[in-house]
Amino acid sequence: MKIEYVVLDENLNWEDLKDSIALLPPNRQNKIARYRFEKDKLLSLAAGLLIRRAIGESPIFFGEHDKPYADCGVFFSVSHSGRVAAIATDDAEVGLDIEQLPDKSRLKIADRFYHPRERVYVKESQDSCRAFCEIWTRKEAVLKMTGEGISTDLTAFDTTALPLSAQLYTSALDGYCLSVCSADPIGDNPIDISELELKNLL
Question: In angstroms, rounded to a whole number, what is the distance separating the alpha carbons of residues 42 and 120?
Fold first, then answer.
């Protein structure tokens, strides 16, 4: 499995990059166009460029639950948050989520959406904000791997327990938390995580 990500410069603006949208397929162009705010357009553009790097010119199709896939044998999942866009690629179904670390005001969400054991994990952690973000990204990664989306009852599964936990990997980035879920147990298989420059994707 490989994870690649880009961090957008705070001084970057849409006018500098809007012509790059022509590099992307129509479905991604349309998605970018629907965003209202410049930052979201830039993040979606970066995600599209990461997909292009991963699958080349292979067309993208949409399966059950509108989960995107390519016919080139590469499974992928993208996510973006804050100033970061990321992609995970693998030879099995994969789901990726990245989120900025939250402030403590968001922690009460755990009472509504986390499995009881996940709530204990957050409450007993020395860094409750990071622990909350770890669980949230792990849940999102699972749902993106299956394609089910957040309409699923999030309290019904525990990302801290086997067998599901064996399919998950979580990593800290500066100010962010990133989790990936594979259809297969990850085990000791190395995960290559690397930062890319946006200019190298153009």
Answer: 37
Closest CA to 182 of 118, 67, 91: 91
The pTM for the full model equals 0.94
pLDDT of residue 150: 67
- Tell me how far apart the alpha carbons of residues 11 and 5 are, in angstroms, rounded to a whole number: 18
Burial of 102 (0-12, 13-18, 19+ CB in 10 A): middle
Q: What is the pLDDT of residues 74-97, one digit of tens each?
A: 999 999 999 999 999 998 899 999
How far, in Å, CA of 199 to CA of 64, rounded? Answer: 34
Contact 86, 50 (CB under 8 A): yes
- 66 is written with which tokens? 């509108």
Look at the block and give the residue holding tokens 């099995």. 92
Identify each DSSP E strand in 25-159 by its residue range: 60-62, 68-70, 75-81, 84-90, 94-100
